[in-house]
Write a structure and sequence with these properties.
- 43% of the residues lie in helices and 17% in strands.
- The protein is of the alpha/beta class and 410 residues long.
- The strands form two sheets. Strands 1, 4, 5, 6, 8, 9, 10, 11, 12, 13 and 14 form an eleven-stranded mixed β-sheet that branches. Strands 2-3-7 form a three-stranded mixed β-sheet, with no helix packed on it.
- The longest helix has 51 residues, at 51-101.
- The chain is elongated and about 125 Å long.
Length: 410
Amino acid sequence: MTVELPRSTLDAEPPVRPATAVWLCLLAAFLAAGALLTLLAWPKDAPTGTPWFWMCLVGFPLLGWCVLFGFRLHFYEDEMNRLTATADARQREFEAAVAFGAEPLAVLHAAYLCAMRTGCASGLMLERDSVLVAHSPRPHLPPVRHSRLPLAEEVEPGGRYAEVFEAILGQLEMPLRALPPSVPLDVTLQVSDGVDPAPLRHAWQTCWTATGLHHVEASVLPATDGLMALDAWLDETGGPALERFRLFVAVQLHETPPQNSAEAAVALLLGWAPLAERLELSAIATLHRPVAAAHGLADTIRTAALFGQITPDALPHLWQSGLQKAEKAAMLTEGSDIALGAVQTDAFAGVHDIDAALGNPGVATPWLAAALAVENARQRGEPQLIACRESTLCLAVVRPPAGPKEQETT
């Protein structure tokens, strides 16, 4: 579940301070009333130069005013102390929640396949290149605006997936072999709705076995989960459920491509950051907790940045995919309201629309956005923000690996 940040400030209004002018007027009223009552009630034959006369004339009215003022001041200070203690407790809860939510995942490797050349796609998108053009997916079919992986067409059912799995594992084999066998490794596959996962799991296991890696049974992630699966992983508070490595593989292929669609395959090899550091495994980037948009886009951007331990103005790149037209407009307007770095650039040069460059990658949308952000963070050394739509709009921060000086201070 998403980390709920408690409010760091109180909604309650502070108590009203005792007004100096009001209490001075009350003091004058008390002294006047005391003097009037004393003069009216004082016996005519009693001397007026005694301490008792002056006590009745001034002392008792002043004492009564002091008692009343003391009660008022005590109420004010007691309420202020209560509010201060509550605010301090709220602040501690807020800081603890932020510290828990800011725990990142180490990206040990990111592999992807798309219609753009692997290793160069992020740079090409920065230049506003696009491979989204209208062409016929097969002979005798009308042209459709889409991008397609350069795979063999005349293969048995599931053969294109096997070809993708082989290519992805070819990029991942060395990083996977570097993992210590004593630490658990999970493999999670994600394919689009309507595709039977059973034969694809079999194809994956066959390709995995061919690499000679130790056996790991792959599970299937629902098509609606995406990056928010990382949120559930980071909710673990310790133990084997948290201290493990996970390989997420998402593949989007089309038999008959829809308009403005893209084929893509992505694999992210992730680990809990303290575990990777303890095992001296080099991370190519850190991926921070994703945040689902629920309380307004501006607040979601702020929360994602908070979990990324950065301010919105220090995020010069935004990778977006799967967003609706209204959401893209809201990213610009609300991002501008909070000085999001990517939308402050000239001609929105920091906003990179994956759908415009490739088409919508379907179930691979969040993972491709993350992989491209990782690639750009690694190449440019700058933090990145990703925004993608799964079952809901979610955002996350990707940061380049910390340098030696930064590691010493964290």
